[in-house]
């Protein structure tokens, strides 16, 4: 892929992650610039979520280096990376189901964002406004519909006041109308200067927001760059379009 420039915000160089003999990440280099939105596509098992886990510090990598804003964070724990401004959502959302929407965002603002009660309350209210969840503040997370659960997943990540947000397949399962609303939310984050990395199988949603596209398969980066050029790439078409019709 293109060599990272000096503006690059989050940079991974030659990452490796093995599970036994399986190379989930096999020499993956990746970068995202400040304020940039990068999409990641690839067939099931390509290593996309594993890349997020490596970037967020969910587990130690088997090799390679990660820098954020110029600092080497390769061996920093997840909490440190979160405090530095890296937030992620999960492919399988992980809200506290017994808590309300507001309480869920408060937990993230206090534990992840390090805010004390009063500023966390103000911050949580702002995030609920921003994500369209304000009217549902007192609704238990367990009672939310799918779109609002996705919004809550984004809200919990935003509550930690990140510089960069890693979105893992938040579009899945939504109707077209719901998807339009989710895209509008992500676009608004981008418009406010948030750096975004978005894994998504729903290409037409991704293409609306991203500046650059990365395609992974079998733990490797097949192609990266202009979204249309990546989708025209012969290896990408074979590995991705061939196996996952849009
Ligand atoms: N904790 C784990 N232990 C063993 N193997 C794992 C583990 N996590 C992921 N893998 C394997 O690593 C490979 C990459 O998985 P990953 O979840 O990163 O793929 P993905 O691109 O996110 O796929 P999907 O589109 O299905 O979400 C897969 O073969 C997966 O089975
Ligand atoms: Mg995944």
* Largest sheet properties: 6 strands, mixed
| Total tally of structural domains | 2
* Structural classification: alpha/beta
CATH superfamily of the largest domain: P-loop containing nucleotide triphosphate hydrolases
Mean pLDDT: 93
Q: Count of DSSP E strands?
A: 10
Share in β-strands: 25-35%
Quick structural gist:
It is built from nine helices and ten strands.
Tell me what the structure shows.
With 246 residues, the chain is α/β, with parallel strands linked by helices. The protein folds into two domains: 1-85 and 163-246, P-loop containing nucleotide triphosphate hydrolases (Rossmann fold, 3-Layer(aba) Sandwich); 95-161, no CATH class. The protein has nine helices and ten strands. α3 (101-112) crosses α4, α3 (101-112) packs parallel to α5 and α6 (176-191) packs parallel to α7 (203-209). It is globular. Bound molecules: adenosine-5'-triphosphate (ATP) and magnesium ion (MG). Adenosine-5'-triphosphate is lined by residues 19, 22, 24, 42, 44-50, 91.
